[in-house]
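Look over both lines:
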Amino acid sequence: MSSYKAPLEDLRFALFDVLDVEPLFSRLGFEDANRELVDAVLDEAARFTETVLAPLNGIGDQVGCTYDKATGDVTAPPGFKQAFDQYVESGWIGLTNTPEHGGQGMPSVLGGVLTELVDAANLAWGNFPMLSHGAVVALEEYGEEWQKDVFLKPLVAGTWTGTMCLTEPHCGTDLGLLKTRAELQADGSYSVTGTKIFITAGEHDLVPNIIHLVLAKLPDAPPGAKGISLFVVPKFKVARDGTVGDRNAVRCGAIEHKMGIHGSATCVMNFDGAEGYLVGEPHKGLQAMFVMMNSARLGVGVQGLGLSERAYQNALRYSRERLQSRSLSGPKCPDKPADPIIVHPDVRRMLLAQKALIEGGRLLSLHAYSQLDIAERSQDPAERERANTLLGFLTPISKGCLTEWSIENTYNAVQCFGGHGYIAEHGMEQLARDARITTLYEGTTGIQSLDLIGRKTAASQGAGLKLFLAEVEAFAKQHQDEAALAEFIAPLTAKCAEWGKLTIETLQRAATNPEELGAASTDYMFYSGYVVLAYWWARSVAAANASSRSQAFKDAKRDTARFYFARMLPRTLAHKAAIEAGAASLMALDADHFGD
């Protein structure tokens, strides 16, 4: 089976050397989040994920969840509940939640780090507590005071968990088509009826109560997405004074048989007149649900990052140990029957591609989480608005690219193992299967791409892009006289200028043909992601050079950056060509002519 060790050195480099979070945390009022405490959090999170969660990863895949058709109950794989109990007892679930509701009030950046470690160790297990955070965020912002009092403390403590119930059998992303209905009752509650599918952790045995946030329509709802309301529907009824009552009329109808994440319960949930309460205003539920979805999208991006890290660690170890053939330039280990495969250029290509995407992607993700902290905690309204705009821009890039790159990274890791990667013994094929869901969770890659080029770029006149380009420009100006960075800053500056020009040209074409946005969207997202990573690799080299870290560490950052700029950033050329090709070739073929 695959092994996992938390990448603490690179995490500390990202946090303290590149992002310089200490003064940021202090400025935002996170008084307790000093270097000593953050280091302790990292060490303990590493211990828990390495020793408790990682060993359960293979078990969860092999055994999976068990569904009892007679009762609708779901049992998690062996060891999952015991691990969850330890997680709750240690207070990990409430790490970033407010102390008002029992949380520890730590920065969202640290929550992002914890998410990476948990999901790298055991993605399927990590799905059980994942959506509770989104439920908390939605209830904090839109819930009535009694709802906050009753639901938030057990969710933050981890004694209850939460879900998001959006999708239905006949509609995926188009939630305006949903059929679930809610009717007002005499006591002020609502009777919720309908079927939801793909509900992560919709039913399980880890906690006694599960809080479902459900999208439904009221009888007087206007048609489409503008008629959606949000309801909180507990597994066991909860009165307004917090008293837990009888089992509610909500039942798991089945669990999905899936390609991966076998240890995670993906449920069909049937609501048959279940008692629930309206959250927020009638017909404004989608607005509240987006709060959950945006939080979850950042988390799903980190899922892809975590799987990439675990796959890379095992591929690197195997490539150093596996003996096969000789180096093309002559034996590197003449005392052995063959050289380790890491001497071969193509194996190095795959390993370096993983390393470059992971370490650069980690900074992309943590930077987005830092904007979330600024947006929530800054005392300056202008700074909060700027952070919100930049966060909105970075979220679809982070979610879309980090998950798509997890497919590439786990694929390359399997390739490094050869045939041994395809069989279950080494655990690599599990990582490849598990990674596939991350591109689908919380909106497919196509949805993220449309969000980026549509809502976050076209609709805002490129507000987020302008902020990011200004950040790059400031960095380039700061280091313009440093010879050691010239090889990175010059191509980065040129690529950012191209990015801005490409964006303007694409939006101009879309002004006369709306199909141009959809035609360009996915290539635009990848183009954006590769340029963003070029910035973070340039900043990594600058930070490493200025740090007190070992020369070997500095050399590794510089050499990986060189690889990225030479062999991965040029991928933007293909994406640019596809964007400039326009919509014509995509839309020309009649739908009836694709084939039988």
